[in-house]
Amino acid sequence: MRGAISGLPAIWFLCVLSAPACQWSSNSSSGLSSLIRVEGGQAMRGSIAGPADTIAAKATLTPRNAAIFPGESNKSINGNVGPDANAVALGVAGDSAYWLVPALAPDTSSDPLRFFLYTAIFSLSPAVASSPLLQPDPNSPSTLILPLSYRAVNDAGEFGPTQVQQLYMYPQGVDGTLVVSLDWDAPVDLDLHVQTPILAPNDAGLVTVWAKTRSAEPNLPDGGVDGNLDFDSNEDCQIDGRDLENVVWTGQPPSGRYIVRVDAFSLCGQTSAAWHAIAYTPQGTIGEASGVLTDAATREAPTAGAGLTAFEFDYP
């Protein structure tokens, strides 16, 4: 083991050895009221923007995905720090606390003596939805940005320059000429499948929009994408807290019969999940159903058209 960590505060070692107790303590510096909370990290009172830049070491950060939702948990990130740094600081500038995460594994893809790897799992407070630290996305008026700052920290507790990974909070409400939505009540991976009246090429049958196909009509005259799944929520049990998927048409949907199915890709350790599916247009609801899936529903292969048939409807 490398001795470079010795310069971090003594409380760091106590929290690494007993992370659950430190992580959720009610101490004013615990980060309990911060927008993000990092599993196994040490909460430090104050803004991550506070410490001065005194070293040249930098960090990298790669998110599992950059989409976030209030109350989301199990959000994974990873990266490296160096040269000669032993931890990464994570936080949102202006927040009540930031977090220190150790980087202990040598990064063999670079210089193993000077760069080290870290991984972290964090959750988002439900309060992020109304936080003044959110920023507007200049490319999408309905999307907000949470700027996640990250900085390398060395064994003396000195900080490198601030870098920022933008995380995107998309609106929950959906508008379209036709929308099919699925939501559920547990941290599980359900998938929405919508079989459309569109015939696939090469006599492959009717097209189903779901997580593996995303779009039913990739070549509209205006160059856009229609009949599109907006998000694969809780993909592979990476729980994002959204528990909602939508297939949306913004152009003219094809006429004919649609079949809506609910597939339990995985219950992620849960025993059951209640779901609700609905199809609607600007004129009102045109189909709706609810139900409960148990572990038995996960035994079907995850292919297009898999799962329980919730309801069918005709458009227009």
Can you describe what's shown?
The structure is a single chain. By secondary structure, this protein is mainly beta. The chain has two domains: 4-169, Immunoglobulin-like (Sandwich), CATH 2.60.40; 178-315. Helices cover 4% and strands 45% of the residues. The protein is built from two helices and 23 strands. The chain has helices spanning 10-17, 19-23, and strands spanning 36-38, 42-45, 58-59, 62-63, 67-68, 75-82, 87-91, 97-102, 105-106, 116-124, 135-137, 140-153, 163-169, 178-184, 189-199, 206-209, 215-217, 226-229, 244-249, 256-266, 272-281, 284-294, 308-315. The strands form four sheets. Strands 2, 5, 7, 8, 11, 12 and 13 form a seven-stranded mixed beta sheet that branches. Strands 1, 3, 4, 6, 9 and 10 form a six-stranded antiparallel beta sheet that branches. Strands 17-18-19-14-21-22 form a six-stranded antiparallel beta sheet, with no helix packed on it. It is elongated. The model is unreliable at 1-29 and 218-225 (pLDDT under 50).
Name some characteristics of this structure.
single chain, 316 residues, mainly beta, Immunoglobulin-like, 2 domains, seven-stranded mixed β-sheet, six-stranded antiparallel β-sheet, 23 strands, elongated
